[in-house]
Design goal:
single chain; 209 residues; Alpha-Beta Plaits; two-stranded antiparallel sheet; 11 strands; 25% strand; globular
């Protein structure tokens, strides 16, 4: 049976089902056999992780060639100016090359669960929240991008992967959703999502309103 699972990965949980160092893993929350993450989130990042037992779906979500959009809520240190946000939107230079253009906009602080370990915050330095949508998935990319513009990431939550969103899922909980039956059905789903997003989105915002 084809399965597709949406999981809200908590802070400091590994995106794998075992660990020799006894750190928390997916096995502490999901007992379903035969499913694997389609893509990853790093140890200290939170939010949406898609798991499936379908090979073509894993490949379509995780392989850079398919350019599956992933949206993150990012709390950064300091208040980025318009020029810094333009850098994120155009692409920034990292050690492994320039990033692809991204969508970035300011958001109000989202209503979130408390993190087990509070963020590093300095009293004299404010923080800001951004919504950042990427079309690629390099290692620790969001954190490296915000560091490159001088605004280190303090908290990182993935809100969406393609057409699938975090919604009301609480940390450590998951829900099963309808799984595309074949690559053609997945392509149709992705196309409808892109069309809907283009109609609903206010456009790329690279400055403060």
């Amino acid at each position: 049976m084809n399965r597709l699972i949406l999981f809200n990965k908590p802070y400091r949980v590994l995106c794998q089902f075992s660990d020799s160092s006894s750190r928390a893993t997916l096995a502490d929350f999901i007992s379903m056999a035969g499913i694997y993450p389609a893509g990853r989130l790093d140890y200290e990042s939170e939010g949406l992780l898609v798991l499936t037992n379908v090979g073509f779906l894993q490949h379509a979500i995780s392989h850079p060639r398919h350019k599956s959009p992933k949206t993150y809520w990012v709390q950064v240190e300091g208040i980025p100016k318009a020029g810094a946000l333009h850098q994120l939107a155009r692409g920034v230079w990292l050690k492994d090359g320039r990033t692809r253009p991204a969508e970035v906009r300011r958001i109000d602080p989202p209503a979130l669960w408390p993190r087990p370990r509070p963020i590093r915050q300095r009293q004299a330095i404010p923080t800001a929240w951004l919504a950042l949508t990427l079309m690629e998935g390099r290692n620790r990319q969001v954190r490296r991008m915000t560091a490159a513009i001088g605004h280190p990431t303090l908290r990182l939550i993935r809100q969406a992967v393609g057409p699938w969103q975090l919604g009301a899922l609480q940390p450590g909980t998951w829900r099963a959703v309808r799984c595309p039956r074949n690559p053609e059905e997945l392509a149709q789903l992705m196309t409808r999502h892109r069309q809907r997003s283009s109609l609903e989105a206010p456009g790329i915002t690279t400055g403060w309103s």
